[in-house]
Design brief:
Layout (H helix, E strand, L loop, with lengths): L48 H12 L3 E2 L1 H8 L10 H10 L3 E6 L2 E6 L1 H9 L6 H11 L14 H14 L2 E2 L1 H12 L5 H10 L13 E4 L6 E4 L9 H16 L4 E3 H8 L1 H5 L3 H13 L3 E4 L6 E4 L3 H6 L7
Antiparallel strand pairs: 1-3, 2-3, 4-6, 5-6, 7-9, 8-9
Length: 320
């Protein structure tokens, strides 16, 4: 039986009024690494949930060393110049699970606050709640640059920026053309344009969350987007994302217009929601005492009533 996750207690507002903007490497409030990842960081490897779990166990021990040492400690396959260790580290970093430092070829790994909760409650990454949150974080925007780029830009391009360019149904060649328009001709883009959507079709990866499905075969094959589930079970995951990215993008602001958040982050494009779905989630956050919601200007304005750590700790709070 699942251990009872930390509950949200009390209703006093978040007292951290003096939180400043993020540093160059870490968001002080959220604890996420938010340097952008190399475009081709996956090489040719999908995120494997079992291997990511092994990576979390290594980070929990503050493990480190070179690729070979981490491979030996975790059992993740690697070699001297290639292998799955570095891609799994970068996936876990982009998903907000681990902090990463690298110097002179050696890695130093530790769990983020989110990584600690996931490691404790879902160490094998089997819960769709976990996977939706990790998907959202991997698809998030990196900083406030213009044009907008993502932490893992192939994911940000597809899920956050690709709604208008690609639409709800798209082929691999459509996606490849989009990546090429963003990054120029690169030899690895064809492989990358197949790998990213394939992540959501492989059982060993993220297929259980069903963010994409495949229709047709061969040259007629198209990927079809699915909206994020509008169910209470998943609302803690969306709320954890909301608070983590609020910290990352908006610093210490305690009050925030929801439209500003969605405009900057492209959240609604990623989740594929309309107004009714948004309202259900926002009402749930109010009901749970996470935020106070004002609509005096017509558009919702949110006041934080919880610290990010409390919201992250309650990630699995709606699971029976």
């Amino acid at each position: 039986m699942r251990r009872q996750p930390a509950a949200l207690g009390g209703s006093s507002p978040d007292a951290r009024d003096d939180v400043g903007p993020p540093s160059d490497h870490l968001s002080i409030a959220s604890g996420l690494d938010h340097d952008s990842l190399p475009l081709n960081f996956p090489q040719t490897f999908l995120p494997d949930r079992r291997l990511l779990g092994l990576q979390l166990a290594c980070a929990e021990r503050n493990g480190g060393g070179n690729q070979e040492a981490i491979g030996a400690a975790t059992g993740i396959p690697t070699g001297k110049s290639t292998g799955k260790v570095e891609p799994m580290i970068r996936y876990a970093q982009g998903m907000g699970l681990i902090h990463v430092e690298k110097a002179d070829g050696d890695w130093r790994l530790s769990l983020t606050r989110l990584g600690q909760v996931v490691r404790r409650e879902d160490p094998f990454l089997s819960e769709p709640v976990s996977l939706w949150l990790l998907h959202l974080l991997l698809s998030r925007r990196c900083g406030l640059t213009t044009p907008a780029l993502g932490i893992a830009d192939a994911w940000f391009a597809l899920f956050a920026e690709g709604q208008f360019r690609l639409g709800p149904r798209f082929s691999q060649s459509d996606y490849l053309d989009f990546l090429t328009a963003r990054h120029g001709e690169k030899s690895y883009l064809k492989s990358l344009s197949g790998l990213v959507p394939q992540m959501y079709l492989e059982d060993s990866s993220f297929a259980v969350m069903a963010a994409l499905t495949l229709e047709g075969t061969g040259q007629d094959a198209v990927f079809v987007r699915a909206a994020a589930p509008v169910e209470r079970t998943f609302f803690p995951a969306y709320s954890a994302y909301f608070f983590l990215v609020w910290d990352e993008q908006f610093g210490g602001d305690r009050q925030l217009a929801f439209n500003d958040f969605t405009r900057v982050t492209r959240l609604l494009s990623v989740v594929g929601w309309g107004d009714a779905s948004v309202a259900r989630w926002l009402d749930w956050m109010v009901e749970r005492g996470l935020v106070q919601l004002d609509r005096y200007t017509g558009a919702p304005v949110l006041l934080r009533l919880r610290e990010t750590g409390e919201v992250v700790n309650a990630l699995y709070g709606e699971l029976v």
